[in-house]
Amino acid sequence: MKISKLIGWVLVSLTIVSCVKQEAPNVSFARVDGAQILEPNGNPIILKGTNIGNWLVPEGYMFKSGKASSPTKIDRLLYQMIGPDSLKKFWKNYLDNYITYEDIKYIKAIGANHIRLPFHYQLLTQDEYMGDRNHGFTYFDRIIDWCKQENLYVLFDMHCAPGGQTGDNIDDSEGYPFLLNSEISQQIMSDVWVKIAERYKNEPIVLGYDLLNEPIAHYFKDDYEKLNPKLYPLYKRIIKDIRKVDPNHMIFLNGAQWSTSFDVFDEITETNIVYEFHKYWFPVNQGAVQSYIDFSNKHNVPIYIGETGENTDEWIMEFRTLLDENQIHWAFWPYKKMNNLRGIMNFEQPENYDLITKFGEADRSTFGEIRKNMPDKALVQKALNQFVENSLFKNNFPNEPYVKGLGFTVLPVK
User: Which residues constitute the domain of residue 307?
Assistant: First the structure.
């Protein structure tokens, strides 16, 4: 009987193992092959896309919120004008309306093959951010589902890291890249990336993980010698942690100084890595990209410009053509803005929205100044409600010369 039971248990165990093996996903992913990026089917691809800016990371110049330039400062500005309950409702409506499936379908239809998705690390922590706590996967999953339906790749971009990696409004920091010197912040960063990797490790529509947007701004030139050498070791640490749960997805590494300098990459030892630079406001010529091409040729690795744009339609056409001639992967910044033609999509600014801008520019350093400069709450609420409505895809309109400049197809909003 004992031998019979033992044989029975062995057979059951083998059956379980067999079932597990059968259920394990057999998935291919986009990957690096020398200086190329290959799709899961093995065909080379040149990435061409746009950044979903101002959605999960609100920015002051796109929100037109005056001196309130970072997500935290924008949140505080709106709180002072409409209070906590209305603010929570506003953020929920904003997140549900600013980017929808219709936007994703349009991005794919005009010719893009991927989106870069900026996000704030606090979306995946217990910190309150944009009206809630730990609610990032609600929006990540939504985007993933839409992009799967349209076969549009998604690149996750940690735009705001714990402690701050840039030291300016775009990383929602306290004015210094404390991340590079903070073990606490680095551990939180690792925890967030591992959480993302665990969730999407078997998802082929995910292009990869863009670890850190525009680290170490030029304001800290006196600290370059201390900060720059810490960037690549931090990358290696996060790569190692991610690879424990996800060995397959590509990882994108930004250079230092607003992602302009590859000097921090003193050795190339990691695999399946794309090296990323950003570049704005410069004369269009071969010299603008040659150093990055030289880096690619020297190390036989792919390069990607994750952000560029914010310029005239003519400039967009010239620079995009240069990138294509050199087969450089790209994503222009950003997809959508309010009352601003330097992007793919545009929408109208609501009536009385200038009240928000003026309050953002006003003195709010004391409670007395806040009360003195406070705009009419009802008018502000109406403007914010209309802002959300105007941001809906059906109420948007494409900037046709800009879209043509990207080499995409101009399509009407339906």
Answer: 44-405
CATH of the domain at 205: 3.20.20.80
Distance, CA of 366 to CA of 191 (rounded, Å): 37
Closest CA to 253 of 238, 244, 69, 184: 238
Is 193 part of any domain? yes
Q: Which pTM was predicted? A: 0.92
Tens of pLDDT, residue by residue over 247-280, are: 999 999 999 999 999 999 988 989 999 999 999 9
Total number of domains in the chain: 1
Convert the pLDDT of each residue in 75-134 to its tens digit.
999 999 999 999 999 999 999 999 999 999 999 999 999 999 999 999 999 999 999 999
With respect to residue 412, please indicate whether it lies within any of the assigned structural domains. no
Instruction: Specify if 6 maps to a domain.
Output: no
* CA dist., res. 312 & res. 116, Å (int): 22
Which positions ≥6 away from 207 have C-beta within 8 Å? 30, 47, 114, 153, 154, 155, 249, 250
The radius of gyration computed from the CA coordinates of the chain, to the nearest angstrom, equals: 23
